[in-house]
Amino acid sequence: MQMLYNSDNYAVLQIEMIAENAPVLPAKVVALTRGGYEIVDKFARKELFIEGAMAESFKEGVDALIESSPSIEEFDAYLERYACLAQQPVVMH
Questions:
Q1: Tell me, what's the pLDDT at 91?
Q2: Are 16 and 30 in contact (CB under 8 A)?
Q3: What pTM, to 2 d.p., does this model score?
C-alpha cells in the first residue's frame, strides 16, 4: 500500500497485491499483480476501491492532470468525480 495523495478532503492509496498462485519468478521478471486505488472522502467518511478498467481510466486522468500542474482544488475536484461513487463507510479498527 502506498499513499499517493493526501489533502484536507481526500486521500488516495495505491494497493498492489501479488496473486496467491503466482509462480516463483526470477527477480528481473515481474510477478502477476492485482490491485487498484482506494479513494477516501474524509468529510463524507466514505471510501471507494477501484480496479481494472476504471482504475486505468483514473490513472490516465491523473497523469493528464499532473501535466498541467494542478492546484489542490483542481485535483480535489477531479477526485470528487470518483468519490461520489463511494458507498463504503470508513471504519477505524
A1: 77
A2: no
A3: 0.77
